[in-house]
Every structure is written in C-alpha cells, then in structure tokens.
Amino acid sequence: MALENHDIEKLRELEESLWRRETRFNEAYMRSILSEDFFEFGRSGKIYTIGVSLSAPDQEINAVLPLKDFAIHEIDDRVVLVTYISEVRYDELEMGNRSSLWIKTDSGWKLKFHQGTPTKSQ
Predict the structure, then answer these.
(1) How many domains in the chain?
(2) CA–CA separation, 66 vs 55, rounded Å?
(3) What CA–CA distance (Å, rounded) separates 51 from 103?
(4) Residue 38's domain is classified under what CATH number?
(5) Contact 81, 101 (CB under 8 A)
(6) Which domain covers residue 83, as residue numbers?
(7) Tens-digit pLDDT profile for the chain (122 aa)?
(8) pTM for this structure?
(9) Cα–Cα distance between 87 and 122 in angstroms, integer?
C-alpha cells in the first residue's frame, strides 16, 4: 500500500511539531498526538514515558528544520516508521539518528514509540 500525499504531509508536520517549542510544550496538543502507552529511548540513553514527556519543562529548542533525510517506511496500512537525522544547535551541534513509530487510528496519527541515537555529522 502506498501512503497518500496528505498522510505523508501530515506525518512530516507531526514529526516536526515535536521540534517546535509552541507545540512540543503544549500539553493538550501532545496528548492529542501521543499514544496512551507512548515511550521513548532518548538520545541520552534515558527511557521516557508519556508522563515524563508531558511534564518536560518549557524550553527553547534549537532544531534545524526541515528535518534532514526525512523518510517514511510503511510497516502495514496503519503503521509507519519515520526516520530522519536531527540537528540541534546548543553550544555545539548535536546530531542524532531518529525513528518514530506512528499508528493511524480513527482519530488520526498517534506516536507510539520514538528513539534517538547520537551520531557524528553525516
């Protein structure tokens, strides 16, 4: 099955919203896109649950958008794996290989799992 253009655009929009301060720290918005059993293996190596993710303090995010090497890999007609390279500028550039598992539900796409792995520049 091939994803329709509106799904591809929506998944890019959703993934990039996680790197925008105004959406990433908006609890109502995040609850609308995270699966109830969401969890993450962070770039730091820490494991984050939905509760931890929702309670993160509001802070500046210096991510480079659009996301580098953004790709969607279809698992089945309702599950996709989104991959890309994150670039975040703090004192120095932090890069990570990223993957997100999105599930299409009756109410829209929900983020079930995310993983970040540190990497050097590519």
Answers:
(1) 1
(2) 26
(3) 19
(4) 3.10.450.50
(5) yes
(6) 5-119
(7) 678 899 999 999 999 999 999 999 999 999 999 999 999 999 889 999 999 999 999 999 999 999 999 999 999 989 999 999 999 998 889 999 999 999 999 999 999 999 999 998 65
(8) 0.92
(9) 11
